[in-house]
Specification:
Helix content is 46%, strand content 15%. With 549 residues, the protein is α/β, with parallel strands linked by helices. The strands form 2 sheets. The chain has an 8-stranded mixed β-sheet with strand order 3-2-1-4-5-6-7-8, sandwiched between helices. Strands 11-10-9-12-13-14-15-16 form an 8-stranded mixed β-sheet, with helices on both faces. The longest helix is centred in the N-terminal third of the chain and has 23 residues. It is globular and about 75 Å long. 54% of the residues are buried.
Length: 549
């Protein structure tokens, strides 16, 4: 035992009921000084605090908080600090397992952005190098982070984002500098309300009902709540900084950090591999929708596909004047083939309107390139960046699938999601960006699983570009959540030679032409695009073997 919960103050999100409430009870039983339980369910939370105070007088307080909203997380954190005076431990437990159309955005805000927000606030409060007392942040991921399921691709993507964020932000010497220990727990299916009504939780009702029937017919049993709680306490007591743990099937909690590290070591090695080439798809006479298309790589993708015979291209961007000028330039060399549509990819209402406008202009959308991206983890921008990099990409993907799928009258098509090598490497200066890009990769492989292409005719591809000579790599010192780390990153990359824009564009065109459905590709160092799907699959196969062991 290295860490002791005795006399520590705890903040637990999603603490009104389920595992959150049980964590509160357990740590009070182990000597915690005080516990603040945060939840959107006010009446349930008040009742839980009252129950806890009966056995542990004046040690529990309830604070109302909607973890999907930044204003709520800020107010709740301040209220908890006022009550506890000091916060020693944060357990980011709040979570929603729903990919359904009316809930997936809120769920992602809770599962991913809420975790980031409370983590950053906790780090700022705890860090010893800025006058804090140190502490522990426990981020609840899931076995969804290290396994694959086609029915819940958004949930699975958000949970691997939590895992990758945690391992990036805690890269050495983070603990040595700050005294803040970051731990990640991957819970297996546990007997809580999260596992009820599975049929209604998928983005696709048929897939949800299939999973629900399979769980019922196979007699699947979930681990007991007590097992999940004991795993949490044991991890807290012994978990080394930056470690990742697994609790599944009522077995003792297991440190899986070596397994995850091995997979990411493998990812980093696979950035140098073999190339396979064959032509299967032709962009000629296809219509394209490209987000972030006003400038940079997006504009170059538009130019390249028009040169390869595309019928028409809709470029979407928030930069209106630049977008109009780009469309005008493209139309000079390819008359009446480019149209600009204003769109803020961080906002659902803009996405819905822009998709409808593109469809009205193009009549049919054959290809979507989800290119829009912001590489900024700075405090005033990280939420907007995540909305663009992750939730905007999901929204366009779901709209594209609905429009294209052949089993519902569509003509099929291709969706290209732009991830990054940040998804398969660890960068402590940009943990939110790295995590959002890993979420993109995992979402792409989950949603495209199994018979998806055969059923829908929609080919989902993922591209992981390496550092490319675009404005995304300018002013790096200002892009980190921590200015000191930002300056270090800028110094490291100061002499680095980024690949040319032309190389990245050629890689996407090449991938479009030859890539099999559900594949993941990399482009870096001006080398030809490479299919890295086998390496990604190998890593996740090893994760899934770990879950079965």
């Amino acid at each position: 035992m290295q860490w002791d919960p005795k006399d520590k103050t705890f903040l637990i999100t999603g603490g009104a009921s389920g595992l959150g409430a049980e964590y509160a009870q357990a740590f009070l039983n182990h000597g915690a000084k005080r516990v603040a339980i945060l939840d959107i369910a006010a009446e349930v939370g008040k009742a839980t605090a009252e129950r806890l105070n009966k056995s542990h007088p004046d040690k529990a307080v309830f604070i109302s908080c909607d973890a999907s909203k930044e204003e709520d997380t800020a107010a709740a954190f301040a209220a908890a600090l006022a009550q506890l005076k000091q916060i020693d431990v944060i357990i980011n437990n709040a979570g929603i397992m729903v990919d359904a159309p009316n809930m997936w955005r809120t769920a992602s805000d809770v599962n991913w952005q809420g975790v980031v927000s409370f983590s950053l606030k906790g780090i700022n409060h705890m860090r010893k190098d800025e006058g804090g007392a140190g502490g522990t942040i426990v981020n609840i991921a899931s076995i969804a982070a290290i396994s694959r399921a086609g029915a819940l691709p958004i949930y699975y993507g958000s949970k691997i984002a939590v895992l990758h964020f945690s391992q990036c932000i805690s890269e050495k010497p983070f603990f040595e500098n700050t005294g803040v220990r970051v731990l990640t727990m991957c819970l297996g299916g546990t007997d809580t309300p999260l596992m009820q009504n599975l049929g209604a939780r998928s983005y696709d009702r048929k897939l949800g009902e299939f999973i629900a029937a399979k769980v019922e017919n196979d007699g699947v049993t979930f681990q007991k709540v007590e097992s999940g709680v004991k795993a949490m306490v044991d991890m807290f007591n012994s978990g080394t900084p930056g470690s990742i743990w697994l609790s599944i099937d009522n077995k003792p909690v297991q440190d899986i950090t070596p397994n995850v590290s091995s997979a990411f070591d493998g990812f980093e090695k696979l950035l140098y591999g073999a190339i396979v080439d064959k032509m299967q798809w032709d962009p000629k006479d296809k219509t394209f929708l490209i987000t972030g298309g006003a400038s940079g790589l997006g504009a170059e993708y538009a130019q390249a596909f028009l040169e390869h015979g595309a019928k028409k291209v809709a470029i979407l961007d928030i930069a209106v004047e630049v977008g109009k000028a780009t469309a005008e330039r493209l139309n000079k060399s390819h008359p009446d083939k480019a149209v600009f549509i204003s769109c803020d990819v961080s906002k659902e209402e803009d996405i819905a309107a822009a998709f409808a406008a593109a469809l009205a202009q193009l009549k049919q959308i054959d290809v979507i390139i989800n290119n829009a991206g912001i590489m900024v983890d700075a405090p005033n921008m990280w939420r907007t960046a995540c909305d663009v990099n992750w939730q905007g990409l999901i929204s366009f993907t779901l709209k594209g699938i609905k429009h294209m799928r052949t089993d519902e009258g569509g003509a099929g098509g291709t969706i290209i999601n732009i991830s990054s090598i940040a998804s398969i490497t660890k960068n402590p200066a940009l943990p939110m960006y790295c995590a959002s890009k890993m979420a993109v990769l995992h979402f792409g492989q989950c949603i495209a699983m199994g018979s998806f292409f055969d059923d829908t005719g929609v080919r989902v591809l993922t591209m992981c570009p390496g550092a490319t000579d675009t404005p995304l790599l300018h002013n790096l010192a200002q892009r980190s959540y921590d200015p000191k780390l930002g300056k270090t990153l800028e110094a490291v990359l100061d002499d680095y030679v980024c690949q040319k824009t032309e190389s990245a564009v050629a890689a996407v065109v090449h991938m479009y032409k030859i890539a099999a459905p559900a594949t993941t590709w990399v482009t870096m160092d001006d080398k030809p695009a490479r299919d890295i799907t086998a390496s990604i699959d190998s890593a996740f196969d090893s994760f899934e073997k770990l879950l079965a062991s």
